[in-house]
Amino acid sequence: MLPLMRIRPAGQPIRLPDWSIAFGRHAKLEVDLGCGRGHYAFARAQARPDRNVVAIETRIKWVGLLRQRAKKQGVLNLRAIRCDASMDLPLLFDKASVEGFSIFHPDPWWKKRHRKRRLVRPELVDQWAQMLTPGGWIFVQTDVPDLAEEAREVLSACAKLEALDATDFKREVLDGLGSHREHKCQQFGIPVRAMAFARKPDPAP
Ligand SMILES: C[S@@+](CC[C@H](N)C(=O)[O-])C[C@H]1O[C@@H](n2cnc3c(N)ncnc32)[C@H](O)[C@@H]1O
Question: What is the pLDDT of residues 16-72, one digit of tens each?
Fold first, then answer.
């Protein structure tokens, strides 16, 4: 897949999308990274019509199916985009413009030499933290214990973030909604680990 960056003519300044135009209204923006089939993003958009939800996924088939489903069911506050969350977010979202990022069950990239591809890594967490509005949030959930440990370390090390109680956060802010993988884990009795972090206020100048 071509990263978005490569199709920008050389020397042209980056023009970020205006999401209020894309959605036809101003609303808080939430972004689900690696949405897969989009169960969570779809349910979230339905449950919170006051939010604009962007679902990001590399697999074009699932992006297409999610778009079709949203169109068929008249869910107007959801957009699905095929792109690489590890490269393309700076071309999509401005600083201090995103209310929340969710990442349900990111790919574990088991092999040691592939671990650098894991989504929850320091430079990306820093990027997401900069894109968050004050008080904005990052929610990560996984059923892979060592990935959970690593993700918690990386998120905790970001000076712009502070940890929240993930159980309360999921119930109160995410309305207890879950993803396809989460439902599979529940079905097979596989424990999941969740973590939630909020953007700290900027220090006074
Ligand atoms: C294990 S699946 C989980 C899907 C969904 N979030 C869930 O919980 O059911 C991980 C998903 O992340 C997508 N993915 C992995 N790396 C990605 C990236 N860099 N950018 C966007 N999507 C990515 C994969 O294609 C896959 O659909």
Answer: 999 999 999 999 999 999 999 999 999 999 999 999 999 999 999 999 999 999 999
Q: In this structure, how many other beta carbons lie within 10 angstroms of the beta carbon of residue 120?
A: 22
Instruction: Establish whether 126 is a catalytic residue.
Output: no
Q: Which amino acid is at 153?
A: E
CA of 130 to the centre of ligand 1 (A): 22
Show Cβ contacts of residue 77 under 8 Å, excluding neighbours closer than 6 positions.
Answer: 23, 27, 45, 48, 49, 51, 52, 53
Angle at 193 between CA 187 and CA 199, to 5 degrees: 135
Ligand 1 centroid vs 123 CA: distance in angstroms? 18
Q: In terms of CATH architecture, what is 25-199?
A: 3-Layer(aba) Sandwich (3.40)
Ligand 1-lining residues (CB < 6 angstroms): 34-36, 56-59, 84-86, 104-107, 119, 179-182
**Closest ligand 1 atom number to CA of residue 84:** 20
CA distance 11 to 172: 45
CA neighbor of 128 nearest in space, from 196, 44, 81, 62? 196
Tell me the pLDDT tens digit for each residue of 103-128.
999 999 888 887 888 999 999 999 99
CB 36 within 8 A of CB 25: no
Angle between helices 60-72 and 39-47 (to 10 degrees): 30
